[in-house]
């Protein structure tokens, strides 16, 4: 009966261990990426904010403009000039731009405004060149009519260098070693121009537009491929916790089952040994019991083997 009880207990533990575990499910939701405006509407918006920086402006003096919070990272400044003086004198240094003598603006206006743009970390969101990677921020230089400083959505003037090119000096960038960098110009008509940059990261241009330095994407070291494993959600973490708890409980139950099995086998052997001893005792001769003092001891009723002398010379 004890062996049968042990078998039933072991079977119950095996049923618990073989039960299916609980699995926590999680649902993933994919969100679409943000939709950013195109580059040309951005120019019109920046012209509006640049003109807001004019407060009793002085000719030839740059003014820093404030951009909205959704365009944080873009640096914007504006400067008003006389067209005649601008053509015959140029402007030595307007941030990264060096404007030489002989720059012509059409149609002719008495006063013009130069709007400087530095798109910073937003450069690649507005300007891309397939097969190339930007290694410098996109810089823009655009000319507008400055007759009415409260005007918005103004068209750009046609600004072109007639003698020497305009220099764009990119500072604070590290060119990858062994990789050829190129100057890229994003023209207002949508065309793109490429030419080699100088060792000191200076680009040359004869027209206004947006400029940067790029390298061939194939020459760059390949970035590590994104993991195909989806990010772990809260449900996945809970599932992992349940698996750990289940493993600990399962190990404990296995040890308990093993101990119970060893105990049952030991108990069975002990009982079997007692049964054999009892059978041997019952198969022998039954001895009578006599009281000796306060105890009862087994005694034999007769001597089984009679004594005999071993010496043959002894008298009969």
Report on the architecture of this protein.
With 316 residues, the protein is α+β, with helices and mostly antiparallel strands. It has a domain at 40-219: Chondroitinase Ac, Chain A, domain 3. Helices cover 28% and strands 26% of the residues. It has 5 helices and 16 strands. The protein has helices at 2-17, 39-51, 83-89, 123-126, 234-283; strands spanning 63-65, 75-82, 91-94, 97-99, 103-106, 111-118, 132-134, 139-145, 158-161, 166-169, 181-186, 192-196, 202-205, 209-216, 288-292, 295-299. Strands 1, 2, 6, 7, 8, 11, 12 and 14 form an 8-stranded antiparallel sheet that branches. Strand 15 (288-292) and strand 16 form a beta hairpin. The model is unreliable at 16-37 and 226-230 (pLDDT under 50).
List the helices and strands and how they pair.
Elements: H1 2-17, H2 39-51, E1 63-65, E2 75-82, H3 83-89, E3 91-94, E4 97-99, E5 103-106, E6 111-118, H4 123-126, E7 132-134, E8 139-145, E9 158-161, E10 166-169, E11 181-186, E12 192-196, E13 202-205, E14 209-216, H5 234-283, E15 288-292, E16 295-299
Antiparallel strand pairs: 1-2, 2-6, 3-4, 4-10, 5-9, 6-8, 7-14, 8-14, 10-13, 11-12, 11-14, 15-16
């Amino acid at each position: 009966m004890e062996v049968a009880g042990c078998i039933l207990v072991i079977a119950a533990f095996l049923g618990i261990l073989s039960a299916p575990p609980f699995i926590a499910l999680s649902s993933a939701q994919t969100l679409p990426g943000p939709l950013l405006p195109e580059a040309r509407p951005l120019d019109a918006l920046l012209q509006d904010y640049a003109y807001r920086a004019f407060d009793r402006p002085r000719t030839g003096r740059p003014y820093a403009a404030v951009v909205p919070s959704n365009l944080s990272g873009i640096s914007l400044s504006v400067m008003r000039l006389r067209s005649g003086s601008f053509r015959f004198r140029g402007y030595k240094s307007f941030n990264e731009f060096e404007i030489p003598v002989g720059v012509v603006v059409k149609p002719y206006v008495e006063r013009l405004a130069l709007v400087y743009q530095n798109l910073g970390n937003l450069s690649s969101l507005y300007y891309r060149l397939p097969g190339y990677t930007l290694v410098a921020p996109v810089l823009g230089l655009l000319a507008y009519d400055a007759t009415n400083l409260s005007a918005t959505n103004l068209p750009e003037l046609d600004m072109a260098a007639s003698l020497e090119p305009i220099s764009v000096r990119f500072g604070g960038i590290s060119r990858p070693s062994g990789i050829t960098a190129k100057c890229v110009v994003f023209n207002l008509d949508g065309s793109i121009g490429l030419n080699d940059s100088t060792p000191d990261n200076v680009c040359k241009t004869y027209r206004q537009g947006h400029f940067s330095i790029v390298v061939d994407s194939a020459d760059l070291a390949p970035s590590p491929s994104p993991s195909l494993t989806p990010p772990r959600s809260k449900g996945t973490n809970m599932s992992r916790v349940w698996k750990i708890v289940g493993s600990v409980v399962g190990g404990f139950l296995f040890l308990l089952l093993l101990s119970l099995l060893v105990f049952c086998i030991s108990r069975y052997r002990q009982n079997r040994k007692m049964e054999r001893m009892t059978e041997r005792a019952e198969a022998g001769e039954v001895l009578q019991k006599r009281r000796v003092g306060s105890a009862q001891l087994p005694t034999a009723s007769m001597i089984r083997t009679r004594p005999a002398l071993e010496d043959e010379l002894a008298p009969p």
